[in-house]
Every structure is written in structure tokens, then in C-alpha cells.
Amino acid sequence: MDFWIDGQNSGKTVRDFLKKQHISSALCTRLKQREDGILLNGTRVTVRAVLKEGDRLSLALFDEAVNPKLLPLKREVEVLLDTPDLVALNKPPFMPTHPSHGHFDDTLANVIVWQYRAATPRFSPRFVNRLDRNTSGVVLVAKHAHAAAQLAGQIAAGEMQKAYIAVVCGEISGETVLKTGIRRQNESVITREVCAVGEGDIAVTHVKPLAVKNGHTLVLLQPQTGRTHQLRVHMASLGTPILGDDLYGAPRHGIGRHALHAATLSFVAPNGMPVTVRAPLAPDMVGLIADIFGEEGRALAKQYC
């Protein structure tokens, strides 16, 4: 990871600059132990070195610990953005994000290992956001610990903006903001339910209808929090569950999954630049939206993807 030193940081020591970049003391210690850990204009330096405007400070931030059990899966997944710090991919439906019981070698994590570890042997994916197996769209992966911490901090502070496209059963006439609690339903491991604020984890979702037709609504969903099944639970609480989401009361549909797509993700990259990543709709969602809402509906959805 490279930092270009501006006038504001000229005169600072490397130690002070790294502290300003929220690089932990533990990570700083690991960097100091590596030959290529901290380079100033290509030369190894200590954290006592003084920076000047125009300098390039390079940090070898790739993780040292690699999970040997994470097997590569040879499959092409669309790369939406690829930088030295992170990669964003368009996760297809029916693919788990990371390994779990019954899914050890067929996940997005396995695909990432196949796509990146040959070129970067020390690369271990760190997922910034996760999607349900049946949800398609943007998944953001940090390539090193500092990027993971910086991006996770934005999520915790509510600074990372997300937008989803969904098709729901029933008609929604106007924009609304849902602010509720969400908790496990009857101690279920999987199912969640809406509850009063204070009785569960607070969850906030902005709902914007884009088109209404044939007893369905095409909606833009913007969660301000990231609770498990938040969008699915909130839509069901309105009496308009996401089409195909039989866990929350919706009828099954021909695409074989709930009609939910993570369309955009906006954040500040570790290099300080604002970024918006857009994921084109999965083909099954394109066909579903066209079938229900026509070409006008498909065009509306694509404005956000």
C-alpha cells in the first residue's frame, strides 16, 4: 500500500503518520520486522524517519497468516473494482460468501483464492460485507488488515452507504423509513422478527418504490444498519415480503430465490478517495423485473446498478 506525502504531513515521522492512518501498534510491529515492511521512496527506513512533501511511503500490508484449508475454486466471478487495498466482486446468486457447514469449497472465498493467490501468495480474503447465499450483488473484500480495519470502521460508524434492488409482493405507495428492533424469533438460529426498539438490535431501512404493477412493487432499499436478514424482515413486517422469500411468507417464484440484489456500495477507500461500486443485475433478476414491470421497470432498476 502506497501513501504519497502532502505538505500537511511533511515534517512528521513515519510513526506519527502511521498512527494518523489508524494503523495499529501490533501491525506496525509486524511491518518493522519485515525487510520490505516500511519503505520510503523504495528504501527501508525506521519509524523515526522524517517525511517530506512528495515522498512515497510503501507498506507491505498483506496478511502473513494464510488459511491452508481454503481451497481454490476455478470459476469466473465479475470483478467490479480491483486496487492494491481491496477488490469488489459481483457475487452470483446461489453462492455462499464464505465457508460454513455443508459449504467448504463452493463459496466466493474459494473463488477469490483461485483468482488472486497465484499472483499474491500471501493474500487471504477479509470480507467487509457479506450477502446471503441467494442474494446477488456487491461484495467488498479487503486485501490486508489495515484496509479491513479502515472499512469496518466505516460500517460501524454508519458511513458506508448501501443500496439494494428488490421485488416485493404487494403494493407500496410511497417512500417510508422503518426504524425497529430486530431479534431472533423464538430463539431460532436462522429466523428473525421485528420487535420494539430496545428489545432487539436497532435496524433502520429507507424504502423507495420505483414501480408498481401486477400486485408487486419494484423497490430501492437503503439500509442504515446491517442486521441479519434486515431487509427481508422489514419488508415482511410491512406485509410486502420479498418475492421468493418463503422463509418470511412470500410465495416461491420461478427464479428459485428471493428477489434481492445488492446494487451499490459507497465508501472511502483506504487511500482517501470516495468510491461507489455498482453491480449489474443478475440475469435472473433482469428477466423477472422485465416480466413483471416491463422494459420501463428494467430501465428504472438499471439506473441503480
Overview of the molecule:
This protein folds into 3 domains: 2-59, no CATH class; 79-156, Pseudouridine synthase; 161-302, 2-Layer Sandwich (Pseudouridine synthase). The two termini are 29 Å apart. The longest helix has 20 residues, at 283-302. Helix content is 21%, strand content 29%. The mean pLDDT is 91. The protein is α+β, with helices and mostly antiparallel strands. It is elongated and about 65 Å long. A hairpin with a 5-residue loop joins β14 (260-268) and β15 (274-278).
Describe the structure in brief.
With 305 residues, this protein is of the alpha+beta class. It has six helices and 15 strands.
Largest sheet report = 11 strands, mixed
Quick one: overall form? elongated
What's the structural domain tally? 3
Q: Which blocks of ≥5 consecutive residues have pLDDT under 50?
A: none
Just name the CATH architecture of the largest domain: 2-Layer Sandwich
Beta-strand share of residues: 25-35%
Query: How confident overall, as mean pLDDT?
Result: 91
Nearest-angstrom radius of gyration? 22 Å
Number of strands: 15
Category by helix and strand content: alpha+beta
Q: Report how far the terminal alpha carbons are from each other.
A: 29 Å
CATH class division of the largest domain: Alpha Beta
CATH-derived topology of the largest domain: Pseudouridine synthase
Query: What is the helix content?
Result: 10-25%
Q: Give the helices and strands as they follow along the chain.
A: EHHEEEEEHEEHEEEEEHEEH
Number of helices: 6
| CATH superfamily annotation of the largest domain | Pseudouridine synthase
